[in-house]
Hints:
Helix content: 10-25%
CATH class: Alpha Beta
Shape: globular
Strand order of the largest sheet: 1-2-4-5-6-3
Largest sheet: 6 strands, antiparallel
CATH superfamily: Hotdog Thioesterase
CATH topology: Thiol Ester Dehydrase, Chain A
CATH architecture: Roll
Structural class: alpha+beta
Order of helices and strands: EEHHEEEEH
Amino acid sequence: MSEPSAGWFEGREHVLPVRVYYEDTDFTGVVYHANYLRYFERGRSDFLRMAGVSHTDLLERYDPAAFVVTRMEIDFRKPARIDDALLVRTTYDTASGPRLAISQRITRGDEVIATAAVSAACISMDGRPRKPPPGLVEALRPWFAPSTP
């Protein structure tokens, strides 16, 4: 049996296809605003999975770690509707200490439906910020934005 698609990479950008189902919409057939958070979360998670970073492995370490979103700014540009085929496009831009900066957008064809600027932090199981475990930033480094001089 094959696994569900976790998307693909186009350069630095991870692309995840998402179909809008009835359950995602309000009574008008438009995607309910909170569901964009779910789409963006799936994009970030599948990016990490495909880059070789496993949430399960992070939790099973001798010094468990996890990620939390500390800030998310979303611009809703156009409504997504029932049966739309969307693409969640995610880039991990930078890492500094425990923080990760992530850019996301949802498209329908050439149309940008929504964009998100996300700040996430690596935390220990007591909820305190911590540097990501060794190897994690190195696994993501090929996907970060090129450094500016």
